[in-house]
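Re: XIL structure - here you go.
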Amino acid sequence: MSVRTLRLPSPTHPRRALGAAAATAAVALAAVTLLPTGQAGAAGTTLRSLAEANGLYFGTAISQGDLNNAPLTAVAGSQFGMLTPTNEMKWDTIEPSRGSFSYGPADRLVSFAQTHSMRVRGHTLVWHSQLPSWVNSLPGSQVKTAMENHINNEVTHYKGKLYAWDVVNEPFNEDGSFRTDAFYNAMGSGYVADALRTARAADPTAKLYLNDYNIEGLNAKSDAMYNLVKSLKGQGVPLDGVGFQAHFILGQIPSSFKANLQRFTALGVNVAITELDDRMPLPPSADKLARQAGDYASVVNTCLTVSGCVGLTQWGVGDPDSWIPGTFPGYGAATLYDANYQPKPAYTASANALGGGTTSPTPTPTPTPTPPGASCQVSGKVSPWNTGLTEDITITNTGSTALNGWALTYTLPAGQTVTNSWNASLTPATGRVTATNLSYNATLAPGAATSFGFQATHTGDTAFPTSFSLNGTACTTS
Ligand code: XIL
């Protein structure tokens, strides 16, 4: 398959992470205009640690060539807790000719993961693409043996070392029919169960997944995956989860994403977002990046709110190593990191969705003068586009007592309607809105700040809300 040329980043100083000050910055989307520069990542403020604090993982895909890219590896090794080899565990690399196995490239990636205490998702054992021609040329009667031998050899090689395997990748056409690839043609749909059983026998500890794209929303293809999972579970076939690739287009996260994930978890499997990116028409602009931040926040929040969603993996580390421009001409800027491996607004929004705005960074509270009578201060930023906006609001407890549970009430300008939110639950969607804490950010110590955000539609008035009060006490606004 294609080998992508890596466009090397231009700056000389890699930045590994948002520093504590940036992660607790007043607004998630301030990064649109105020990208912090040069801070080293502070413990507790990486995507990885924020995800882990929520019981999730945040992963990335890396290829062998990426290991020579210092800015990329610095970000990957500090910000992500799960690694998927981009191409190196695929059939054409592992077994390019029958019975001849080549593990060097994938081993190097597993070794990088181990050095950085990252877990590994194996990708992928059985797939119609990046499949060497010898498999497609086999007589049908030999495909089952070849498939089982391939799975057995590869899974055994990594036995005990991987968190999960994408056992079968992309089994369905868009209309929900099975792809008529070498495996289906030889064995019918039963190849899926056979592949799962073979993988389980070779490594009983790795989680076993089916993985596909365009199954994020409710549609014919996700119906087909749902029916397959239901049937496999009913037959007692070993299957732990379903991977949703989540190659999204800006502004097109399906509204049924959460409901769809939930119908899968109701079948007794986990779900994972396995290849997340959010492409936009090039070039990027502040407006598009702000909308992308809203998309990423909504995806992270969907996983957070679906019990049984175990984690998210971004496909690539930054825009320079993303597969998007090479595969979807005219599109790009799909990841959390820009051309220079600097975090984008989507990074900040993702970190904030994971609670990254909820820390008290310094032992001595910032000596902000407290206006008489006020126990709270509110700041924030609106990032609008023609019909919508994202908004992040930070509340600082300027009083002297800790709050155990908080409710911030404010008035939305006329015409604004909340469509989704992160780090707080909001009701109602218009008018006088109350944002209530979630369980993990209920406590607000004196001097501490917490952030939440929301996405809304508007009819022209994109002003910041007014008349804030926290637990019934009026707040100052800055
Ligand atoms: C892509 C890689 O990113 C590219 O480098 C390669 O040329 C083609 O494959 N769905 C998948 C991934 O499951 O394996 C694909 O990865 C992207 C789509």
